[in-house]
Amino acid sequence: MKTKTKIGIAALLSLAFLLGSAVTQLVIGLYPANVTTVWVNNPPLHEADYIIGVYNSTHYYAKNGTTGEIEFCGTNASQVTNNAISAIESKGGIIFIKAGTYELSNSIIGKSNIEIIGEGGTILSVSTHITPIKFGDGTNLVQNFTIKHLTINLGNQVPVDDWYGIWLNYVDNFRIENVEIYGQQPATGIRTAAIAMDKATNGVVSKCHIHNTVNGIVPRWSGTKKIIITDNIVHDINIHDGIVPYQTDGDISIVGNIVYGCNRSGILIDGGVGSTRNNNTVVIGNVVFDCHWGIQSYGSKMVTITGNTVRNNTECGIYINAQSDFGFVISSNLVEGNGDGIRIRESRYGTITGNTVRENDGSGISLYSNSHYNTVTSNNVYLNDQHGICLNGSSYCSVTGNTIKDNSQEQNAGFSELLLTNSSASTHSTHDTITGNIIRCTQSNKAEYGIRENTDGEDYNLIVGNIVQGAVTANISIQGTHTVKEHNIE
């Protein structure tokens, strides 16, 4: 029977090529007591090494893309797919999964040099805590692979530790593209994510749609570096964060993503306090809104955040936190409608430049708690409810060439356009340089002060060459004995 089937296939294939695809489908056998339909030109033979299909929602097959023969079939989609992957030679090949729903009872285990490609409408679904796709086991390197055009449904389950949509563990040179992952219920204290990348290098995650999971896209831990996360949509992350480089070895690029509705941060660069992780991470051209924090750097070094639109995040738009210092750059971002606009805490040697910071519920730009040696320059800061720019216990900073206008919108004479104050009885803002700023109050709610030293502990500051007009109580108010106030226009 098997020999006759092969002869029939060969004859029909020859006829198909002769007739120019006039013959488009073959009935090649029964399984069990049902007809399994195999398409010759979807994709054409020789374009995939194996074509995975589903029949009658419960039966699965793997067709050899060269011979057209069904080599593996059964009721276990995971086993059929893994058998096809195992049959591909080490030089590599393509697994093409046709449209349909595939109920997985075990993980699909990838290997080097393969592509797993869905047709569109290809759904991998689980009803237990199975990670649908795994590449790598943490010990043996897997490299040169692609995953794309799939939907992964995690079954709306309460998650457990180490349960993911896709888990990469010791991999190199990979691409995940056009994959949708969803379906985890909220749960705290659980190590899980839609996509987790451990000891992963030289990878791209692009054009994916991640939603309704505990965490979104997470490259993490030592050994992970040179990852590009671009053009994804991540939303409704129900417990933690949307995109999270976590204690990586750095060189992570987060570019052009749309992230919203995250319970915590839309984008979190988490290095851990006192670490040197996540060095040289760049966050460029993303849109982040309706999260708790928009973009946050926590304990990470040399982070660049530029050209992003960050709006309507409840606590803060951009937050540089916990010794995220030594060269951070925040530039050319639009930051509007958040709690605070840009907040710097315990982080030094950074540059905040060219940003538009407006209409936030708190202050526009705030430097807190020993955020020394920072440069704030060429920003437009206006119509924020509280202070325009606030140096709170931060010294040796330069605030130059900014336009600060019509802040204190929460209350007339309630706040200052530019305030120097203390974060504790012993931590004052001193040796700061305030030069070349244009500060104006023109709305009905005006700032109490244009530039204000809050106590006599704010001292040794240089306030020179500013234009300050329209404040309620005083345009410039200094308290420090040694502060220099010269050549300002009031």
**Low-pLDDT segments, ≥5 res:** 1-41
State the total count of DSSP E strands. 46
Tally the helices: 2
Classify the beta-strand content into a percent band: over 45%
- Major sheet: 35 strands, mixed
The Cα radius of gyration reads 29 Å
Terminal Cα span: 99 Å
The helix content, as a percent range, equals under 10%
| Helix vs. strand class | mainly beta
What does the model show?
The chain is mostly beta strands. It has a domain at 350-490: 3 Solenoid (Pectate Lyase C-like), CATH 2.160.20. Helices cover 6% and strands 46% of the residues. The chain has 2 helices and 46 strands. The strands form 3 sheets. The protein has a 35-stranded mixed β-sheet that branches. It has a 9-stranded parallel β-sheet with strand order 21-24-27-30-33-36-39-42-45, with no helix packed on it. Strands 1-2 form a two-stranded antiparallel ribbon. Strand 1 and strand 2 (35-39) form a beta hairpin. The N and C termini lie far apart (99 Å).
